[in-house]
Amino acid sequence: MTSRGQLIVISGPSGAGKGTVCKSIIEKNNFWISVSATTRSPRSDEIDGVNYYFITKEKFLERIASGDFLEYAEVYGNYYGTPKSEVLKVLDNGQDVILEIDIQGALKVKTAYPNGLFIFILPPSMEELKNRITNRGSETPESLITRFTSAHKEISFVSKYDYAVVNDTVACACEKIQSIVIAERCRVDRMNGDFLKEEIINE
Ligand code: 5GP
Q1: How far does residue 80's CA lie from ligand 1's centre (Å)?
Q2: In the chain, pLDDT over 90 holds for what percent of residues?
């Protein structure tokens, strides 16, 4: 029997670089990253179905009512949600899944799936975080202030996560996350008990 994939939840404040880190991780590993639905407008470089499923608020509310989301949250005035059936199907097929979601969503997932692996990405400093959000060039002056103010609050939730990874360089942050995932796979309490008994003890 294929063992279930690992659910890996990655959060962090805007500008911590979690999007870039996740992109780099999936390029090098056999992880599947969930594509969320959102009511936010696409940025100039974003593609529907690749970065997000961009849908209207009406459609989003319909999908909430149908129980389509594993979790959803309102972030910076827009709705974001993780499509449930896709994620569960991939996990059942034994593949590891990454959810790059905000803290409210991560806490909901933690209640429903306490066996998930919860990783928080931190910026090297608040100054660097401010530079990264500003240099992105995609925010209005108002949304820049909102995201920077929220960042301070969000960082205080780091203690709810299993691991904190400082994103000093993308390569280094990816290496740390890969090491965490590998170590987690070796945890006795995550291994299938039958496998331990049959394959190792009988040797
Ligand atoms: P952005 O607008 O910068 O793409 O994302 C804003 C925030 O929404 C980020 O913190 C991102 O992780 C979060 N987010 C993206 N998709 C989801 C989702 O499906 N659920 C939740 N709860 N948050 C999400």
Answers
A1: 6
A2: 72
